[in-house]
Amino acid sequence: MATAPTTARLVDRYGRVARDLRVSVTDRCNLRCRYCMPAEGLPWLAKPEMLTDDELVRLVGIFVSLGVQQVRLTGGEPLLRRSLTDVVGRIAALSPRPRIAMTTNGIGLDRLAAPLAAAGLDRVNVSLDTIDPQEFADLTRRDRLKDVEAGLKAAHDAGLVPVKVNAVAMRGINDHSVADLLAWCLDRGYELRFIEQMPLDAQHGWDANTMIGADEIRASLSERFTITPLPESDRGSAPAERFLVDGGPATVGIIASVTAPFCGACDRTRLTADGQVRNCLFSQRETDLRAPMREGASDEELADLITGEMWRKAKGHGIGSADFVQPLRPMSAIGG
Ligand code: SAM
Ligand code: SF4
Question: How far apart are CA 5 and CA 300, in angstroms?
Fold first, then answer.
């Protein structure tokens, strides 16, 4: 039987090494994207349940000491955490300094992109599923497209390049406008990546039969553009399959998390806003770091809890298998 690793590294029993830590800095959000949340929102974490800045930075430091090289701040909507710029500055001061990225819906980024970049943020992914105002309002249940556009421009101007745009296509909402979104991104120099919708919404509305798969997205884009796959060797552990658009140099990515999972090359681990370490988006369990930390655990003791949880990482997410069960926490509370 396999035994837990003795070296202080984030390895699992299948030999994968986690280098990329996703930190949810809040579970709150100002949008209500249909693939993520119900219209009424969710019961948010109470303040005492959330990690303080000191706790969060301490835990990120422990992950870095265990080999994490990139920290991605996410949520919920990370820009809703008031202390975010401070937190970025403190993570940038860790040694060795990790690369710092953020996934955001872009609302408020017009004001915050420059200070975040100055504090040490290296890259940003902005989620934008359509540039049609009506489709945007249908999909996010809020009329905030202009704010997102302003946020994207500010990120570009602040040098957070290449600015990446993440999009999810939903049938009957924005599936007919994926080529418009690509044209819009190409005009502005943003790198677009489509992500297949996953069963991670709080309301459990995901349906394998209506989900738009990578092949369908590619076919829709091909009606307007010449889409040529880049060689597999250019991909590394990156989840997106990338395509040259009209001969390049611009590219578009498609992340086929459901129809062609990349679990075998996964290098991610996650920390929730209330201090739980999760080895996978789809994990049915998590390890609490907050209570032991508040009870006085040492860095070594917390590191042992983290490596123990990593060791238990499952081989794959199992979507589509008969025994697949959607995780209790929705994407917005895990950190996407
Ligand atoms: N609020 C921020 C945002 O929207 O970018 C960060 C958190 S959000 C959970 C992170 C990413 O997860 C976004 O790009 C969003 O589109 C994606 N996402 C949310 N629910 C999803 C789902 N069910 N399937 C696939 N992607 C999803
Ligand atoms: Fe909010 Fe992001 Fe979820 Fe949309 S995907 S509801 S912006 S957390």
Answer: 14
Q: Calculate the alpha carbon distances from 10 to 62, 159, 195, 250 in Å.
A: 11, 32, 26, 35
Question: Tokens 């957070």 map to which residue?
Answer: 160
Ligand 1 atom 5, closest CA: 104
Could you give the CA distance from residue 140 to residue 148 in angstroms, rounded to a whole number?
Answer: 12
Q: Residue 23's beta-bridge partner residues?
A: 73, 271
Do 282 and 336 touch, CB atoms closer than 8 A? no
% pLDDT > 70, the chain: 96
Helices (H), 6-144: 53-65, 84-92, 109-119, 133-140
Q: Distance (Å, rounded) from C-alpha 107 to C-alpha 128?
A: 11
Q: Give per-residue pLDDT as tens, 252-289.
A: 999 998 888 888 888 999 999 999 999 988 888 899 99
Instruction: Answer for the pair 74, 335: CB distance below 8 angstroms, yes or no.
Output: yes
pTM of the model: 0.94
CA 32-193-170 angle, to 5 degrees, is 45
Query: How far apart are alpha carbons 88 and 108 in whole angstroms?
Result: 16
User: Residue 238: what residue type?
Assistant: A
Residue nearest to atom 11 of ligand 1 (CA): 336
Give the 3-state DSSP-derived string for 144-175, with helices as H, strands as E and coil as C.
CHHHHHHHHHHHHHCCCCCCEEEECCCCCCCH
Question: Could you tell me the strand order of the sheet in which 164-167 lies?
Answer: 227-229, 241-245, 251-255, 191-195, 164-167, 123-127, 99-104, 70-74, 20-24, 268-271, 276-278, 287-288
DSSP string, 235-250: TTT-S-EEEEETTSS-
* 233 CA distance to ligand 2 middle (Å): 32
What does DSSP say about strands 251-255 and 241-245: parallel, antiparallel, or unpaired? antiparallel
Secondary-structure class of domain 20-334 per CATH = alpha beta
**Is the distance from the beta carbon of residue 32 to the nearest atom of ligand 2 less than 6 Å?**
yes
Of the listed ligands, the closest to the CA of 331 is: 1
CA distance 129 to 167: 4
